[in-house]
Write a structure and sequence with these properties.
This protein has ten helices and 27 strands. The chain is an alpha+beta fold. It has a domain at about 45-380: Neuraminidase. A four-stranded antiparallel sheet has the order 3-27-26-25. It has a four-stranded antiparallel sheet with strand order 4-5-6-7, with no helix packed on it. A hairpin with a 4-residue loop joins strand 11 (about 130-135) and strand 12. The radius of gyration is 30 Å and the shape is elongated. The protein starts with a helix and ends with a helix. Residues about 5-25 and about 300-305 have low confidence and may be disordered.
Length: about 500
């Protein structure tokens, strides 16, 4: 009886272990996907350290966090309900609130279109660089450009207006100019996401004039629809519903001038983009999976219920980018090649969870996630594990492959299931022509492509090492064959003579 009970308990534990190994992730921990598409729990790479809201920032009245951006020693928060841009320092102290736009002399700017004072109305986007602060004044259908370097006699920033961008006169297309999000590249060209645009991101010239619609967001087209439209007549095609390009949700630029964009529209063929100067998506996807975000559940027939939709993207100086998912309120962190580094967050009201995530940005190696409904900006700082991951990526991106390998060896000591670290170590061994060690690490990281490359190099080394032996054996075999043939011919000749 006792043996039967023990066997039953063992069987239950084995079933539970098997189910856990292949179960989907939970909202309670960080995780990564392996080569087989299974979600494996991982050490937390980020932890919540600070909450920015009206209670934590003295003198601030933050009613919504629609966008957040960090540049230099300032944090900028776009608040559409307070009609303001809240400016904080890196210690989370309120520096100023920008509500009324002033000129260089401190006078209130008067809007020429309606002869009224230039006051922000529901601003939803903000961007800053070394020269200017860009504000998407969404409620007034315009963009303000302010000087971030102007200061008063006491050394305080005054943010005078240098330019206002209304709808450009040379703007073509049917898109209404309702700027929601904005980013600026190295050449001071603004890229604007306007609401409900099906024509793409609006690229402006430095003087605010219209340049072009930028980036292609292709919609999904089913094979059935494609078949019917290919055989339909012109009259039938006119009666069919038109398929429009999905709208972009947010935009960002990196240090090399590439434009990143995301969308929340599930009808889009892609959810995240990295556009080159031609507007082509060149986002690298060399990770285990082509899809970004959560992988669809095999048990779910509704793809839209499981697909990640992204409301914002933040790019570091070394190619690591964070995607903010609004379908499950998670943050997905990828490196330049598209390898998933970590996932954290989730839906809920507990620590580290989000209600209505709206924006994300980098602050050094920390991430700030804005939540519009909670009117909070959550600051996540990297843990010891996360610091190693980010340092290894920065070293690898900057060409310090040996230093990255050292960091990755520390990573696998902390988390033996972190496949990407094994692959990174294997690449370093491959560059050093240590093919055997590279093969071992690629096998642990389940990277078949690089394993084949390392195996080819290892095979060539073996051939070179034992070439003399192979040559001697081969020559001996040839000599033996010739000798036996000669001996046989001699014997045959003697038999014929007899």
């Amino acid at each position: 009886m006792t043996k039967r009970i023990i066997s039953l308990v063992t069987l239950v534990l084995l079933c539970f272990t098997f189910a856990t190994a292949y179960a989907e992730h939970t909202d309670d921990s960080s995780y990564i996907y392996d080569y087989w598409g299974s979600a494996n729990q991982s050490l937390n790479a980020f932890e919540l350290s600070t909450v920015i809201n009206s209670d934590s920032v003295e003198g601030a009245s933050i009613k919504s966090v629609d966008d957040v951006y960090v540049h230099g020693d300032r944090i900028y928060i776009a608040d559409s309900l307070s009609n303001a841009i809240h400016v904080l320092d890196l210690d989370y102290n309120l520096v100023t609130d920008i509500k009324i736009i002033r000129d260089a002399e401190g006078k209130i700017v008067v809007d020429d279109s309606n002869n009224k004072q230039a006051i922000l109305n529901a601003p939803e986007g903000v961007f800053a660089n070394d020269r200017s602060l860009y504000i998407a004044d969404t409620g007034n259908n315009r963009i303000f450009v302010l000087d971030v370097n102007a200061k008063d006699e006491e050394g305080n920033n005054t943010y005078p207006m240098t330019m206002v961008i209304n709808k450009p006169e040379n703007m073509v297309g049917s898109t209404e100019f309702i700027p929601s999000k904005i980013a600026v590249d190295n050449a001071d060209r603004p890229f604007v996401v306007v609401k409900n645009s099906t024509e793409g991101i609006i690229e402006l010239n430095t003087d605010g004039s219209f340049s072009r619609y930028f980036g292609v967001n292709s919609p999904k087209v089913s094979l059935i629809d494609f078949f019917w439209k290919s055989i339909a007549s012109d009259e039938q095609k006119e009666k069919m519903s038109k398929i429009y390009a999905p709208a972009f949700t947010n935009v960002e630029t990196d240090s090399d001038g590439f434009v990143y964009a995301v969308t929340t529209d599930t009808a889009s063929e892609e959810m995240a983009f990295r556009f080159n100067a031609k507007g082509s998506n060149v986002l690298r996807k060399f990770g285990y999976s082509e899809t970004l975000g959560d992988l669809p559940s095999a048990s779910s027939s509704d793809e839209s219920a499981t697909k990640s939709t992204f409301v914002d993207v933040a790019v570091s100086d070394y190619g690591v980018y964070a995607l903010l998912d609004t379908s499950k309120n998670r943050v997905f962190l990828y490196n330049f090649d598209g390898n998933l580094l970590t996932v954290f967050g989730g839906k809920g009201d507990t620590k580290g969870k989000f209600n209505t995530p709206s924006s994300i940005c980098w602050m050094g190696n920390s991430l700030i996630v804005g939540d519009s409904k909670l009117a909070c900006a959550f600051v996540f700082t990297p843990t010891d594990f996360g610091t190693l991951v980010l340092e290894s990526e920065e070293m690898y991106f900057n060409g310090d492959f040996d230093g990255a390998a050292v960091k990755n060896k520390q990573i696998v000591n902390m988390n033996a299931n972190y496949d990407h670290a094994y692959v990174s170590i294997g690449k370093n061994e491959l560059m050093r022509d240590n093919y055997k060690a590279a093969m071992d690490n690629f096998r642990l990281g389940n990277d078949k492509t690089y394993y084949s490359t390392a195996f080819g190099g290892y095979r060539n080394l073996l051939i070179q090492k034992y070439f003399a032996i192979f040559a001697i054996v081969f020559l001996a075999f040839v000599v033996w064959v010739l000798w036996t043939e000669i001996s046989y011919n001699r014997k045959q000749k003697k038999l014929e003579e007899l």
